[in-house]
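User: quick one, fold this
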Amino acid sequence: MNPILQINQLKTSFFTSSGEVAAVRGVSFELQQGEILGIVGESGCGKSVTVKSIMNIIKPPGRVVDGEILFKGENLLTISKRRIREIKGNDIAMIFQDPMTSLNPVLTIGSQLMETMKAHTKLTKAEREQRATDLLRAVQINSPETRLKQYPHEFSGGMRQRVVIAMALANDPEILIADEPTTALDVTIQDQILKLLKDLQRQQSKSVILITHDLGVVAQMCQRVLVMYGGIIVESGTREAIFYAPKHPYTIGLLRAMPKLNSRERLEAIPGSPPALINPPKGCPFASRCQSAMKLCLTRLPDFYADDEGHKARCWLLDPAVKEMKGRKGHE
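Assistant:
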């Protein structure tokens, strides 16, 4: 099955007065039709920069410096600006984490919903208004006809996030990118928003990329997971593979730091700090924080080592030669 979206060796940097910050350093992955793909990692790992690169919203001093972003085989990095606008308006849409920065406080909810439709469809004004009403109803906002005439400040935080989701759905995109969509919400509202997203994805067979630092959200929502660290993907696999058979020491550390329901076990924080990407490490970016690090880890970045199920991780401990060497030392 051909992926709907394919990212090949994506590199995005920010060119500052202090030097080049290599925020994304050769990221590759695929998004299949109808799946929810999670990208997880600490703040600064490159996950948000990756999806903003896909959406072509990296602002100076940042820019994509290499790679391919293929939407149905069409490279978004080489097509015209007009075609990019068409794809962003109709085929790929983004849900941002802060609805207050996504909504204009001086315009009604209805005018903002209909503005996107006006730019990308040939619907009449009456048809746009009906579509906007239907969208608010779809995201479970009561009295949508009345709500269309109201302003963002008249909505709660959870309701505003529902409006942002409705705006992303306005032109029926094939791909939804949700960047930390529940960060600013309390736990109860967060659960409602996630359930809404999952229901909409299932009903409309959309492909979703979900960016989060919360492994609980990943467990609830995603079918496949990418773990990012230091601007690269360090592990990828199905949700079950990542949670029950993690391979990379960073993934294992994240899981140990995750609170468990009805457990009194003390959480284990990962010691140290992420690397500064203005001078990226030559080897594994996690080596300085890894208790299992070897000299090799500091000097060379490992390739991916995969099992027969496609679960793969970028760690020298998975290299057959390293395993054999460590095995011999263990018997001496």
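User: anything notable?
Assistant: Residues 187-204 form the longest helix (18 residues).
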